[in-house]
Amino acid sequence: MRNKFDEQLEVLNNDLISMGALCEDAIACAVKALLNNDMEFARCAKRTEKEIDQKEREIENFCLKLLLQQQPVAKDLRLISSALKMITDMQRIGDQAADIAEIVTFIDLSKSIGDVHIADMAVAVIKMVTDSIDAFVKRDLALAEAVIEYDDVVDTLFSKSKKSLIDLVAADITRGEQALDMLMIAKYLERIGDHAALIAEWVVFAITGKH
Amino acid sequence: MKKRIFLSILAVSASILVVTSALIVFALYKDYEKERKQELASECMYLAEAFGDNGIAYLKSVGRKSPNRITLIDSGGTVLYDSFADAASLDNHLDRPEVAAAIKNGSGEATRQSATRGENTYYYAMRLDNGYVLRIAVSTKSMLGIVRNTAGVIALILLLAVAVAAAISNLLTKAVVKPLNNLNLDEPLLNDTYGELSPLLLRMDRQKKKIGEQLAEIETKQAQINTIAGSMPQALVIFGVNKRVLYANESAGALFGAVKAGIGYLELCRDTGYIQAVETAFGGYAADVKIETGAKTYRLSVNPVKGDKTYAAVLFASDVTQEGVNEKIRREFSANVSHELKTPLTSIMGYAEIMHNGIARQEDYPRLAGQIYGESKRLLALIEDIIKLSQLDEGEMQGAFAPVDLLAVARKAADSCRKKAEANDVQLAVAGETCIVSGIEGTLFEMIFNLCDNAVTYNKPGGSVEVSVEKSGNGAVVSVRDTGIGIAPEHLDRVFERFYRVDKSRSKETGGTGLGLSIVKHGALLHHARVDLASRLGEGTTVTLVFGNAL
To answer: Are residues B412 and B541 in the same domain?
Structure first.
């Protein structure tokens, strides 16, 4: 019986890693679409978002099944409950990646994106998502804490980006719409960073039991 | 071991104890019984004698003191006197076997047992002269009674036996086991111990040798595999049926980061292509995929290995970054070749068309023909260069190595350039010593000629070109120094590329093909020589060919 439970936990672990990989794909596609104004990548981001939603439902059902049938305790319970929380954050990351892709399909921002710190934000956010999933995969407490710390970097970049966008509009009012779209994208990226930090917090919980 | 020895000793001593005491009790009892019976008979006789003299009063006085039961019975069986009971209360004794026998034969005896009291009672009766019967009886312990009485002692002895058995077995076990514990198992044959153990030790020795051989063999094989797999530039990862890493070589570490045996396949990498490929292999089908990590491109080939029901997988990854770059260079080269060939041909066709259609005036014909001639020459030079390059690429001339004097070749190359140098007002000088290297004269000439040609072409009027050939250690160095226009640092890395030109507009008028330095580079590769390029914009360029081994 325990043996079967261990197998099920391994399946859960693998599912979570796969879902994390999908999130990394989604955001990588969205950022590529943004930087190169490539519609193929925008479609890829949206497609991946659907897969992520599907995966979220699967993992959710699986977790509930495990809770009911195996009545886990201690470490196992922590893993399952943090999995339930993590998939919500992962699913939000997918949503926001798709939202960025959606904006990209309407307006070409590839020329101006570099001037307003959004490209830097994108790089920082991808790093956060990758590191948070890595922290989960390797059960790396230090890395998880580093991700939580790193959220400040993204927040700083966001406020810088906001200031540059204000300057942009002040200098050339005709670029107002562009600026608004870029602000949305910056906000989405900042939210993705928050979700990555939350995932890292759940990783910390799964390892230590503290939250 | 100890327990068994203890139990055996105990069983032996206990059974000996029981059997001996039983036998002794039995033998002694028989003797004792016999004696008592005789005593009883003689006592009866004395009593009978005394009774004859003194009458019943004597019997009564003896009966009060004697532990034996004395009974006097008349010939009718009526009890006249009994020393243990009131005679009147006793019934007729004629049916008692000893009384009946005494009346009949003169004497009689009988034994009656009382199991409850553990006693035997012996009766002895004799007929007196007056017809009366005198009976005397004694009660003794039965055998069972004796055993019952001595049970305490026997139990005590048994306890003692247990203690002694325990002590002896303890000592014995220690003594027996001590040599066994002290056996030198590493060298079974060197032991001096019980002879009974020698077959075991012999066999142990044989097996030890066999195991040692097998272990050494396995280690050798393991080392071979590790060496082969470890020195492979390709990454090799083997997954077990539980989808966890069984083995990963060193190159796998470069691709996936630290890979420990036992980690799950998803912990290596989360690239979608990788995950799909590995899962396909676990499903029983081979998969081939390219993944990009950082700046590198890897080709992964994942193959299933059939287990009982499920599949294990073997992943093989090779770095194809360079292949991609080479592929790109080849594509660019073919695009460039077609473009470079097309340009002069288009001009030739244009001029020829004008002449063919008769549009040109008669006096323009020589000029047009001259243009066609010039362009054809350029085309021919280009084709020749391409042929040389492809020959160098394919290493066709590998076989033609022979001793070549570099100084002579340099002189010849410089002479070929002299006319052009004079036309461009450039001084051309060759200096140095004779250096013989193993090489292909044609190719070496081509290389030095190209360098000289470049040095002259990209020079300033009044400039100079110095070619020097010198020995250096075991090798030789050919350097071509000019005082020309130089090459900007950003172009330095790329001038050896095919069709690469620093100044595209200038090249057209100077008539280069863009393949000269490429030929030098490939020629140098063929000769295992190094090409060094040093240049300062506006001041000049020095190209040095360093040959490793002079003859």
So the answer is: yes
pLDDT tens figures, B167-210 = 888 888 888 888 878 878 788 777 777 778 888 888 988 999 99
Residues lower than pLDDT 50 in chain B:
none
Alpha helix ranges (H) inside A139-175: 141-171
- Is residue B459 domain-shared with residue B364, that is, in the same domain? no
Chain-chain contact of B266 with A17 (C-beta, under 8 angstroms): yes
Task: Residue B271: list chain A partners with CB under 8 A.
Answer: 21
Which A positions 3-62 lie with beta carbon below 8 A of chain B? 10, 13-14, 17-18, 20-22, 24-25
Q: Is residue B241 part of a domain?
A: yes
Give residue A137's pLDDT: 83
* pLDDT tens digits, one per residue of A107-155: 877 777 767 788 888 888 888 988 888 888 888 888 889 999 888 989 9
Alpha-helical regions (H) of B298-437: 321-357, 365-394, 406-423
pLDDT value for A193: 92
> Per residue in A180-196, pLDDT tens?
888 888 899 999 999 99
Query: Do B509 and B526 belong together in one domain?
Result: yes
Domain boundary assignment for chain A: 2-208
In CATH, what number is assigned to the domain containing residue B371? 1.10.287.130
Q: Is residue B163 part of a domain?
A: no
| Cβ distance of A24 and B275 shorter than 8 Å | no
CA B393-B395-B397 angle, to 5 degrees, is 125
B 237-256 → A contacts, CB under 8 A:
243
Supply the ipTM of this predicted assembly: 0.74
Give dist(CA B508, CA B502) in Å, integer. Answer: 12
Distance from CA of B1 to the nearest CA of A (A): 40
Contact by Cβ (8 Å): A165, A179: yes
| Domain that includes residue B495, residue range | 398-547
Residue type at A11? V
Q: Any idea which fold A2-208 has?
A: Methane Monooxygenase Hydroxylase; Chain G, domain 1 (1.20.58)
**Does B346 fall in a domain?**
yes
**Residue B51 is assigned to a structural domain of this protein:** yes
Contact B267 A25 (CB under 8 A): no
pTM of structure: 0.53
B302 and B240 in one domain?
yes
The CATH number linked to B127 is 3.30.450.20
Nearest CA to A134 out of B238, B254, B243, B263 is that of B263
- Name which of B239, B241, B242, B266 to mutate to probe chain A: the one with the most chain A Cβ atoms within 10 A of its Cβ: B266
Q: What is the pLDDT of residue B504?
A: 64
Q: What are phi and psi of B308, to 5 degrees?
A: -60, -65
Distance from CA of B304 to the nearest CA of A (A): 20
Q: Is A84 an interface residue toward B (CB < 8 Å)?
A: no
Q: Which of B267, B271, B272 sits opposite A137 (nearest CB)?
A: B267
Number of domains in chain B: 5
Q: Which residues of A164-199 are buried (b: 16+ CB within 10 A; e: fewer)?
A: bbeebbeeeeeeeebbebbbebbebbbbbbbbbbbb
Q: Confidence band (pLDDT; 50, 70, 90) for A18? A: confident
